[in-house]
Amino acid sequence: MKRKGSRLIYIANIAATYTGTIIGAGFASGQEILVFFTRYEKLSYVSLIISTFLFMYIGSKILMMGGELNSKCYAEMTRAVFKGIAPLINIYLLIAYMTISIAMFAGAGTLFGSYYWIGISITSVLAIITIIMGVDGILYANTIIIPLIFVFDILMFVYHLNVPMIDIQNSKELSTSSIINPIKSGLIYSSYNIILCIGVLVPLGNSVENRNIAKLGGYMGGVLIGTILAMSNYCLSVHMPHIYIHEVPLMYIAHKINPIFGWIYTFILWGAIFTTLIGNLFSITSIIEERFPKYLHNTVLICIVVFFVLLSNFGFSTIISTLYPILGSIGLIFVVYIAIYSLG
């Protein structure tokens, strides 16, 4: 059903949902930002600019395509865009959504420390309830959690403006080879994460009646993602190079500022994990609805959650550093194809 209502509210809701789908455990913990941005030091901002532009442009295009193609799930959009190779694209997307869901469960477990299984159990139950609520559940969850994450990141960033940065540049000269890697990293990072949110953006775009609202929501979401990335990247840069030894680097920084601030960040990080988890589970269940009768949907959802929880024992940082770059490289082809299709 197409949505009507306040223009600004729907733009903000779309932006929050877009951001929430991406700002998962790897992003909010700092692991993704270290791997794809901070390690390039000052050149990390080249990667950030590229990623932010792609988040804005491609994200808005996917939202509008969801409405134009009247797609209720990402598989309907891929069939329209990729024609004969759509089954291969859908397999890739399913693997990507499964991978990130497993990573989010692993992140939730790591967050609760010795109470690993309690944390995963709470996260699983709340995720199942949200998915059963459908698109509205996704919107409500993100509208509450994302503003809190944004405010917290602003506070952390402002604090670090007064913290001296360790000089690790050693007067390096900029060269073609040193610039290529940050550019490549920005492309891979944004490509993977854009693919990650297609399963949510397509049906969300279809639910918005005004095409311009969908476009502006994509733009606002891209700017919000880029802003949070830049602030987090700066905070991590201040603590280079020893920040690499920490499994959850931004939590380490938050605890270093103040123990209470650190405990608050625990909730913030869980919220980031939760918003990305529900986005990916929603993408997976949208495919389930095409293949199973309605009375089995909830049962299959529970089985999938249990399966992902068991696989999450591989470890959070291992999944981030190993699988993300591979899936991102493949996703870059996908993003280029969507850009060409939207111009056609």
Key terms for this structure?
344 residues; mainly alpha; Hydantoin permease
What does this structure look like?
The structure is a single chain. By secondary structure, the protein is an all-alpha fold. It has one domain (7-165, 172-343): Hydantoin permease. 80% of the residues lie in helices and 0% in strands. Helix 4 (44-68) packs antiparallel against helix 10 and helix 9 packs across helix 14 (316-343). It is globular, with a radius of gyration of 19 Å. The chain starts with 6 loop residues before the first helix and ends with a helix.
Strand content: under 5%
Mean pLDDT: 82
Quickly count the domains. 1
> Count of DSSP helices?
14
Under the CATH scheme, which architecture would be assigned? Answer: Orthogonal Bundle
Could you tell me the CATH topology label: Hydantoin permease
Distance between the termini: 28 Å
Query: What pattern of helices and strands is seen along the backbone?
Result: HHHHHHHHHHHHHH
How big is the Rg?
A: 19 Å
Q: How many extended strands?
A: 0
Biggest beta sheet attributes: none
Q: In the CATH hierarchy, what is the class?
A: Mainly Alpha
Short structural summary:
By secondary structure, the chain is mostly helical.
